[in-house]
Amino acid sequence: MSERAGTADGTAPDLSTLSGVSNVLLLAPSLGGHSDEVCFDLLAERPPSETNVLVVSYTQTPAELVEDWDDHVGVPPVRGGIVSVGQGEAGSDDASWAVKPVENPSDLTGVGIELSELLSGMASASDESEHIAVCFNSITSLLQYADLQRGFRFLHVVTGRVKTVGGVGHFHIDPDAHDAQTLATLKGLFDAVVEVNDDGSWDVQR
What we know:
By secondary structure, the protein is an alpha/beta fold. Helix content is 33%, strand content 24%.
């Protein structure tokens, strides 16, 4: 089932189409397009004062991520966490964000450990009114360092952990960088698929 959820005129998208979803596969080109806008729509679904945000990034430094959050949202989340993959020891000057670097992008075990520690810390410190939002950017980058079988196993574990803590995660992938069989295999891990259109709107498949 596919539903149009986003809008092209700058108004807020209807996120009710993703009600009850734990993990979303976000189909969006790596360059250009509107993936950033959709990403922040999903991360900031609830007010920052109620939101814990965890970002796993192969593509941006922590400082760039925090700057983007500030530009789009303007207010720090309750707790912020960044697993910075392949960016060296780069950190952030913003104390609202805990940064965990993983220097080797092929080290999926290291990425998983840092992600799990941040998620567990957020879950144990959060009260019932707080929400955990996760962004994984991106599966396309991950699959540059791991074959599909290894990547699938890793993502199966990660999506399971997001669901266990009651969070909502979205996982970026560039659909133009993968064949149809790879996309079909990966879709099986997710509760919903969001495809970003050229006009900035997006379609939801559940």
